[in-house]
Amino acid sequence: MIERSIFLRAGLCVLISSVVVILFSFSGADSSNAQAAANTPAGTLSLAAQVGKKLFFDQTLSGSGKMSCASCHDPNFAYGPPNNLAVQLGGPNLTDSGTRAVPSLRYQEYTPAYADLLDNPDGISAPGPGGGFTWDGRADTLAQQAEIPLLDPHEMANTSSAAVVAKVQAAAYAPLFLQAFGSNAFAATATAFNDVTRALQAFQIEDVSFHPFSSKFDLYAGNKIGGALSAAETRGLKVFSDANTGNCASCHYQGAGLNGSSALFTDFSYEAIGAPRNAAIPANSDPSYYDMGLCGPLRQDHLPAASGAANRFCGMFKTPTLRNAATRKTFFHNGVMTSLEQVTRFYNTRDTNPEIWYPTVGGTAKKKNNAIFPAYGLIKRQYTGGTVQKYNDLPAAYHANIDLQMPLDGRALGSLPPMSEQNVADLICFLATLTDGYKPPKTPPATGSCVN
């Protein structure tokens, strides 16, 4: 498979480890990872964005009166969830569980609209499903995306767009809304609701806290003081880009953002990786329920013609940015993984050791695991005999859709994983350099797991 280009700096193209490396000039603004958007001076935002800022933090816009956009997209957690729940609680009484993990809203404004055949930003890979907002791309703009949580009965749980508009009209910032959108802005409900979502979009586009580009990698990419990678981080970058080990760049392409901004660490594509089923999601207690991403159930325009009918979109979810991934506590569309190390090891051993990721049926649980049985997997008890239920969150009819590019290359059970223990450790060190709010120490550390 053709490997994708990987990273940006100073407009110069060089070849590193057989990977095309594209380097752009860095134009991001420095910002603390914990910088709350509420502290952004109003004068730096347009009137529409100022309204959006008020809306984003307004809990009264929810059916419960206790949930705002920021409840799930906390600015102190890179606009991701502030807890370790696989899915967040919402609804009229904040007791309803969603069905998907909450993604970060950082760097989302660079996302193109969804297309079944979107040109890949690396300019090399063949066009395929890409773009759009949410895990299944069913919203083409940030404004369209904002409609979903406002009206979803399991999220902010408003009964109608009119209910949202009525709450905005009664809010203390209603005069600001009229100033931004006109003195008759509340005259037509549909138009006013559209203005609400446009305001939320403007806030996310204009406020620097949604795209700070303030990680250690950004200093490195911009040749700035304090951006030198350690030996471990440098090795991790090589693993990230190497098609024969991590191969992360094949989907988390370091493409340019708007105005030549630094790398985004996603190519906006969709892949079916066979993430294990998450029993912590209440909807999954129904064995007939499957969340299959592009082919439903939330997205309706790519549904299978009939149950089990051929459909190349089933099981595919959008590739998220890896920026700030090290700060998250849940991973993948269903939040089934709980650490960056666990995610990395899943990619490395899904095929060689599926028994540590997927349940075994028909076997006998050992009283005590063998000493070499890994403790980092989802399955904590070793079995003798039985059948591993690989890809257990996707109907068997769609297992052929599973992506088989490295390191998830379908290699033989029990064979050597593509990444060594050192590779895994180094890759995790490199991914940590993508966390915003990095402040270079006066004296670089001489020891530590991510130094030498």
Provide the fold topology.
Elements: E1 12-16, E2 19-23, H1 47-56, H2 69-72, E3 89-90, E4 96-97, E5 115-118, E6 128-130, H3 142-151, H4 161-170, H5 174-181, H6 189-206, H7 216-221, H8 231-241, E7 270-271, E8 317-318, H9 340-349, E9 360-361, E10 364-365, E11 383-384, E12 387-388, H10 421-432
Antiparallel strand pairs: 1-2, 3-4, 5-6, 7-8, 9-12, 10-11
Describe the structure.
A hairpin with a 5-residue loop joins β3 and β4. The chain is 22% helix and 7% strand. A two-stranded antiparallel sheet has the order 1-2. A two-stranded antiparallel sheet has the order 3-4. By secondary structure, the protein is of the alpha+beta class. It has helices at residues 47-56, 69-72, 142-151, 161-170, 174-181, 189-206, 216-221, 231-241, 340-349, 421-432, and strands at residues 12-16, 19-23, 89-90, 96-97, 115-118, 128-130, 270-271, 317-318, 360-361, 364-365, 383-384, 387-388. It is globular.
> Widest sheet: strand order?
1-2
Note the gap between the termini. Answer: 32 Å
The fraction of residues assigned to DSSP E strands is 5-15%
What value does the average pLDDT take?
Answer: 90
Q: Main beta sheet: strand number and arrangement?
A: 2 strands, antiparallel
Calculate Rg over CA atoms. 23 Å
Oligomer: single chain
Keywords:
single chain; 452 residues; alpha+beta; two-stranded antiparallel sheet; globular; disordered N terminus
Short description:
With 452 residues, the protein is an alpha+beta fold. 22% of the residues lie in helices and 7% in strands. The chain has helices spanning 47-56, 69-72, 142-151, 161-170, 174-181, 189-206, 216-221, 231-241, 340-349, 421-432; strands at 12-16, 19-23, 89-90, 96-97, 115-118, 128-130, 270-271, 317-318, 360-361, 364-365, 383-384, 387-388.
